[in-house]
Amino acid sequence: MAANTAKIHNLGFGFLGHHPVEELTELVRTAEELGFTSAWIAEDYFYAGAFSLASAVARSTEKIQLGIGVINPYTRHPVLSAMESAALDTVSKGRAIIGIGAANKLWIEIRMGMPYSKPITATRECVEIIKGLVGQGKLTYHGSVFQVEGVELEFQPYRRDLPVYMGVKGDKALFQAGQAADGVLISAGCTLEYIPYARDLIAQGARSVGRNPDELRLAAYLPTCIRPTHQEAVDAMRPFVRRYLGLHGDKPILTCAGFDPAVLRPFREAFLAGETCPNEVTDEMVEKIVVAGTADECRARILDYMAAGVEMPVCFEVGGDESPLEQLKSIHAHLLAD
């Protein structure tokens, strides 16, 4: 069979939030030099904050887009998030993309003592406040979670149309993203079959408020592992997939691919209990949840995601025996180099 040499466009890379600032800056600078078009920085508790990391990176790069993927609506009031988002966009000269997601009850309520109330509504209201304040400069907003009364930015944003995405995966959240956000960032561990499912819900939400669904962008974290043989890649990704089986459980992001919910539930139950599920992570699970295989197989898989509607594929840091720098160079050599 002939190798698939089709070009992968608009490929980004997602970084975990635990890197020291000097290391992350060098990694993103390398990603820019290698031709990645976006770098996404996760805000992982309890490491350095994403805005500080992204601002440092912005001063050492020139053209790569800088995605915040993602912050939550609770630990910063949405007005503060709007201030920081506009400031980052200014520092980066219009390269910022802001991702908002609900985080989780463990971090917000159990660890930090803040009520984890109405996560979908809070996420949407945060998006609306950021877009309203940056876009208009002055805002009064009465939501069910957040209230803003006559707040005005005291500086000029670099762009009034700063893009704000929602990092969500549930049906109601995807629908509301279509109503309010500029795009959606799909979580790592999403199956290919989930992409059209998600796009349909986003489109329904957009049309419900008179928006054109084609104007919303879809990005997706795609954990990618390239190895000389298919089985080597699958075996390397098994621990990563075990974690994401627990993170997602029996939700459409996995069940759209035909997985039996009864098989998925033990992984979720163990994850919530802080334990590791001993059940087998099959080759099929790995093959459907991440991008793993030879260079040709990984290229074909990413192109399949793009054909399904992902406009911004974002290879994602996977850890294990390959450093982020090695992963960047491998993906460049096999998928981006001419």
TrEMBL record:
InterPro entries: F420-G6PD/mer, Luciferase-like_dom, Luciferase-like_sf. Residues 20-311 form the Luciferase-like domain. Keywords: Oxidoreductase. GO terms for molecular function: oxidoreductase activity, acting on paired donors, with incorporation or reduction of molecular oxygen. It comes from Pseudoflavonifractor capillosus ATCC 29799. Signal peptide: none annotated. This is Putative 5,10-methylenetetrahydromethanopterin reductase.
